[in-house]
Every structure is written in C-alpha cells, then in structure tokens.
Amino acid sequence: MSTETLTKPETTPEGTDTTDDDSPKMFHYVKKNKIAESAVMGTHVVALCGEVFPVTKSPKPGSPVCPACKEIYDSLRPGK
C-alpha cells in the first residue's frame, strides 16, 4: 500500500483567535492514488486514522504528522 501525507482542513469557530498563517496544524497519511482525484474532483479521502476530508494542501518537509496515522503507518508491513 502506498500512502502520502495530506492535510485535513482545520476550522475554528467564530470569535476564536486565529493566526495569519492558514497552514494546517497536522497532516494525515492517505492512499497515494486518491490524492489527485480528491484535489481535482473535490472528493474526500480517508486517512489511516479514519479522518475524512478533501485534499486542500500538500505537506512541506518537517510538517507535523498525525500521531495516530504515523503509528498505523509504522506498523504496516513494507510493500512489495
């Protein structure tokens, strides 16, 4: 199985503090073949941790990764 880290859009209720940076707080692992489809068609992807969201951003090196996704990914056997 091939996966890549993606983001789940973060939403904040009105009246809460926000920053000028619209970067997501955490990125998730999802199946690699679903990334382009989601980005182009607007469909939702399912992360290893179970989160469901549309692809909106790509991670940069050093971006924070969902701990649950990372734990699941690290426990998977290497692919062929």
Automatic annotation (TrEMBL):
Region Disordered: start-end pairs: 1-25
Source organism: Amycolatopsis rifamycinica
InterPro entries (UniProt xref): DUF3039 (IPR021400)
Pfam families: DUF3039
UniProt-recorded name of the protein: DUF3039 domain-containing protein
Low complexity biased stretches: 1-16
Taxonomic superkingdom: Bacteria
